[in-house]
Design a protein that fits this description.
elongated; 2 helices; alpha/beta; about 110 residues
Length: about 110
């Protein structure tokens, strides 16, 4: 049986803008909304609440089995599913099976022989 390791990293940015620093020094701290990505269409599909806050993010995935390499087996698929469930329990991220071929952006789990 092959061991599958799933790594998802979260980055916290602890950086204030120049105007936030000045406001903090003046005793009038006002947090400004940051924009890491300008176009929402480039984000993973998500659901939002009434305030526009993300409630769930859906990330399509596939598991490559067989083919010209040994591929992943059912135990590996189960491990991936269990890892996805743990991530879903603690975050807003939901991994969903890619069912439509028009979903151009997705994650593919496969065995690399290198």
């Amino acid at each position: 049986m092959m061991r599958v390791t799933v790594f998802i990293g979260f980055v916290l940015v602890l950086h204030t803008t120049y105007s936030e620093q000045n406001n903090l020094l003046d005793g009038k701290f006002r947090q400004q909304k940051r924009v890491a990505l300008l176009y929402r269409r480039l984000l993973w599909p998500a659901t939002y609440d009434r305030n526009g806050e993300v409630t769930k993010v859906y990330i399509p995935y596939t598991v490559k089995t067989g083919g010209w390499f040994s591929g992943l087996d059912n135990n590996d698929k189960q491990t991936i599913r269990e890892a996805a469930d743990v991530i879903a329990k603690h975050t807003c991220i939901r991994f969903v099976r890619r069912v439509y071929t028009n979903q151009a952006d997705y994650i593919e789990f496969y065995e690399d022989s290198k």
